[in-house]
Design a protein that fits this description.
There is one protein chain. The protein is α/β, with parallel strands linked by helices. The chain is about 40% helix and about 15% strand. The strands form 2 sheets. The protein has a 5-stranded parallel sheet with strand order 7-6-5-8-9. The protein has a 4-stranded parallel sheet with strand order 2-1-3-4. α2 links the parallel β1 and β2.
Length: about 325
């Protein structure tokens, strides 16, 4: 089947074959990015606007680099100094953007559902770069590509997602993607950092780190998102690291060839021991960053193809 999505708003709408198609295309962009001439022309003539209502270093830089390497005209809107800060509504912002005739709109927003709302009001392809606690689809896709390249497959693996599950859109998107690809997913963390209704997610839940990591093929650590917490979810960072921070002793419960992941930015000594994060034999954290550019190139390539096709159909109907 072909990739049929008009937007990339989340993992939930994607068919497993669409996920595979996107990852396969991303593989070709990994090779392009490692070559001397890192440019293609698949987005030539198209305009990409990056609109980040939340600060981000890795994701924004990755999307900007991805667009430029594919030949797009890329603009980063400084939301912190924009009309949004002066009281403009999200709908008014969408109308303003429409008047600029963008082709690709990359949005990160602190409110769940805001990116979906924008996608209904603009005449371009929209990519969700993270919305509230909802989803972060390109992070899950780049994690999937990293896993597939390191483990040789993306199915029938035991994946432990550990830490602040409740506040993590990365955890939600990974849970959806890994489930679609027939993996065994475990959520590991304190009960205070588990979302409501977690038992209905179709995964195993552990509040004991050693038990949760037993026999795991992939250990995915999550950042402790203090900025999203409105109460005392943990006794202290020191206590959190003692019970749920990844160190060599806890990692020894996983498979000997288990890989360690983290979406960044890392809080060393809180979620993960610095020695583990820097262990070239276990950690794939830097590979995740590299795969992020390739996955975002693939996503924009596929969405641009569909955008051009839809516009051609509309022009033929009007002719």
């Amino acid at each position: 089947m072909s990739f049929t999505q008009r937007h990339l708003l989340g993992i939930e709408p994607l068919h497993p074959l669409e996920i595979t198609q996107l990852l396969d295309l991303a593989e070709t962009y990994v090779e392009l990015n490692r070559s001397t001439a890192k440019h293609a022309a698949v987005l030539a003539g198209l305009t990409q606007i990056n609109m980040f209502f939340e600060a981000s270093t890795r994701t924004q830089a990755s999307f900007e680099l991805a667009g430029k390497r594919l030949g797009a005209d890329v603009m980063n809107m400084q939301v912190g100094h924009s009309s949004v800060k002066k009281g403009e509504t999200l709908i008014d912002t969408a109308l303003t953007l429409n008047a600029m005739h963008p082709d690709l709109l990359v949005v990160r927003h602190p409110s769940s559902g805001a990116v979906n709302l924008l996608s209904e009001k603009v005449n371009c392809a929209v990519l969700n770069a993270g919305d509230g606690r909802h989803e972060h689809p390109t992070q899950a896709l780049l994690d999937a590509l990293t896993i597939r390249r390191k483990k040789g497959r993306l199915h029938r693996l035991v994946v432990a997602i550990c830490g602040d599950i409740a506040h993590s859109r990365v955890a939600r998107s990974n849970l959806l993607l890994l489930g679609k690809m027939e993996n065994r997913v475990r959520l590991v963390g304190p009960p205070t950092l588990m979302p409501a209704g977690v038992a209905e997610f179709g995964c195993e839940v552990f509040d004991d780190m050693a038990a949760g990591l037993e026999g795991a093929d992939v250990v995915m650590m999550l950042r402790l998102q203090k900025e999203r917490m409105d109460g005392a979810f943990i006794p202290s960072e020191r206590e959190f690291f003692h019970r749920y921070g990844l160190d060599s002793e806890k990692l020894s419960r996983a498979r000997p060839d288990a890989i360690v992941m983290h979406p960044g930015p890392m809080n060393r000594g809180v979620e993960i021991d610095g020695l583990i994060a820097d262990d070239i034999n276990r950690s794939v954290i830097q590979e995740q960053v590299e795969m992020g550019v390739a996955v975002r190139m693939a996503a924009m390539d596929l969405l641009a193809q569909n955008l051009r096709r839809d516009r051609l159909k509309a022009a033929l109907r009007e002719a």
